[in-house]
Amino acid sequence: MTKKILLINGPNLQLLGVREPEIYGVETLPGIVADLRKEAALLGFELEDFQSNSEGALVDRIGEALSSGVDGIIINPAAYTHTSVALRDALAAVALPAVEVHLSNIAGREDFRRRSYTAEKCIGVISGFGALSYKLALRALAEHLASAGK
Description:
This protein is 35% helix and 19% strand. By secondary structure, it is of the alpha/beta class.
């Protein structure tokens, strides 16, 4: 049985490639997802992806993770990183291994972006490497799941 990783992307990430390319790069979200799907298959995982601008939809999808057979989560909460106790609580509730990912280095940006509510419910955070951050997150989560025997 193939293990499943859920990729969750938050608000405004559907605008990648056109939104502030000097910060977020020129790669589009569909391009990042396609590359990640290939990488996941090479690692023996199925990748399911979900993007929403709605906090409630993101919380709902995290809540459905257990019943849909998800083994781990990669999440880019985007702006909700810095504001959403609800996403933090959803990650805590499902208690699945999760990796938080960001294209930019949030620690080197505006003060309000330096606090992540979701990071403490993740096994790790990868940020600042552009689209490569996603691949690094996938590799880290795959290794974690393999070593945990999941």
